[in-house]
Write a structure and sequence with these properties.
Number of strands: 11
Shape: globular
Strand content: over 45%
Distance between the termini: 37 Å
Order of helices and strands: EEEEEEEEEEE
Largest sheet: 7 strands, mixed
């Protein structure tokens, strides 16, 4: 599966952005989809994940974004979204979408994911 992320940009603190990740292929609904981010000089970190269609659409969030970010997916459009509200300067990072069909892995671990998008930059000014 190939992933194409979009929607990044510059926003003021307290603002909102919606990221989108479009996937190729006909089996999108069998993949767990995740969002990760990497700030300058830091390691890539988990942001959010959503289960595959058969997994009931369960969602998981890092504590740092819980209550502010929402992950969702549209299995008709083969797209996963990350709606980011109440953005903070510390949310500044390159955001990556990822996909895996290894259901037994740890969804918050980057190594679980086999497919990655190219990243989209989010900059939050104070």
């Amino acid at each position: 599966v190939q992933l194409q992320a979009s929607g990044g940009g510059l926003v003021q603190a307290g603002g909102s952005l919606r990221l989108a990740c479009a996937a190729s292929g006909r089996t999108f609904d069998t993949y767990i989809m995740g969002w990760f981010r990497q700030a300058p000089g830091k390691e890539r970190e988990f942001v959010a994940a959503i289960s595959w269609l058969g997994g009931g659409g369960s969602t998981y969030y890092a504590d740092s974004v819980k209550g502010r970010f929402t992950i969702s997916r549209d299995n008709i459009k083969n797209t996963v979204y990350l709606i980011m509200n109440s953005l903070k300067p510390e949310d500044t990072a390159v955001y990556y979408c990822a996909a895996t069909n290894r259901y037994g892995g740890s969804w918050y671990v980057a190594a679980t994911y086999d497919y990655w998008g190219q990243g989209t930059l989010v900059t939050v000014s104070s």
